[in-house]
Amino acid sequence: MKTNRFVSIFALSAILTTSALFAATNKGEEHPTGRFHGAKANTGMAIHYYVGDKSMIKVTPDFKVPDTPAPTWRVVDSKGTVYTLDAFKIKGGEKRQVMIPDYVRDIAKVQVYCAWAEVLLGEANFTKAVK
Question: Is 2 inside a domain boundary?
Answer without folding.
Answer: no
